Amino acid sequence: MSKRILVATDLSAASEDALRQAASYTDSVLGVIHVMPNLVDVRPLFPQNNEANATHAIEIEAKVREAVESAAKAVTTGPVEVFLEQGLDHEAVVTQAKKWKADLLVVGSHGRTGLPRLLLGSVAERLVREAPCSVLVARKHRPGPVLVATDLSEASLPAVAVGAQEAKRRGVSLVVAHVIDHALSDFAASALSQFLGVLPPANAELLGEARTAAKAALESIIAKTGVPGEARVLEGSAASAVIRAAEELGAEVVVVGAHGKSGVRDLVLGTVTERILRSAQGSVMVVRQ
């Protein structure tokens, strides 16, 4: 079955990157949505103006549709379904994604304002939180591996499978990483030593065992995907470690799950994934199953 990919565009340069990356899924059905402000201003006190307003709105919509179709034709020769909606950007896009049964929503990392953090704080992040499907926040393409971040929970495994298929489709290498954040355990050990007179455990030895166990788990998970890949165990805060690894690798895309061990989507999207979305230099795919 073909994958249904919906692209949200505001006709900015960033949206062109989103369209281009969506069109690279050659075996998919492509849809493009553009959300306009409410065009018809109905005024009961001046009914004579209503007809003129409606005519003006139709003319604007025709021009916008032409621009969206032209942008789509610039990146693909295949058929594209165009949707023009009015209202709030994120609400209209989420509604269309549900109605159209999209498998993947693709959105640019920043819009016509040119302020990536502004958009990621308003539209893109809300789409990641509320979309019924996986979301690809597309940034300007750079060749490199696919980096998948996993907390090794059952909920994070679909992201590894999707990342493996992305690496295979793109013809690039796959790296799957797990982060050991031992800051809290170090703090707890220090507190015990300082306030209770209890000596901290042999953290170095425990950390070594944790690294070995995590790498074995990663290698097992990678083997199950059927796609060759490298297992990496990182250390530090989860978001910072993933972002740093993505930069060192020159990752083309970072793949993360919508929720992990907590199982609470908004909690995770408000912490680790949000930081990766804002700070990663390459594209970020948030996988929702």
How are the elements arranged and paired?
Elements lengths: L3 E5 L4 H11 L5 E8 L13 H24 L6 E7 L2 H12 L3 E5 L7 H15 L3 E5 L7 E4 L7 H14 L3 E7 L2 H14 L6 H23 L4 E6 L2 H12 L3 E5 L7 H5 L2 H8 L3 E5 L2
Parallel strand pairs: 1-2, 1-4, 2-3, 4-5, 6-7, 6-9, 7-8, 9-10
Antiparallel strand pairs: 5-10
Helix pairs in contact: 3-4, 8-10
How would you describe the overall organization of this protein?
With 289 residues, the chain is an alpha/beta fold. It has two domains: 140 residues, HUPs (Rossmann fold), CATH 3.40.50; 148 residues, 3-Layer(aba) Sandwich (Rossmann fold), CATH 3.40.50. The protein contains ten helices and ten strands. Strands 3-2-1-4-5-10-9-6-7-8 form a ten-stranded mixed β-sheet, sandwiched between helices. β6, α5 and β7 form a beta-alpha-beta unit. α3 packs parallel to α4 and α8 runs parallel beside α10. The two termini are 17 Å apart. About 6% of the residues have low confidence.
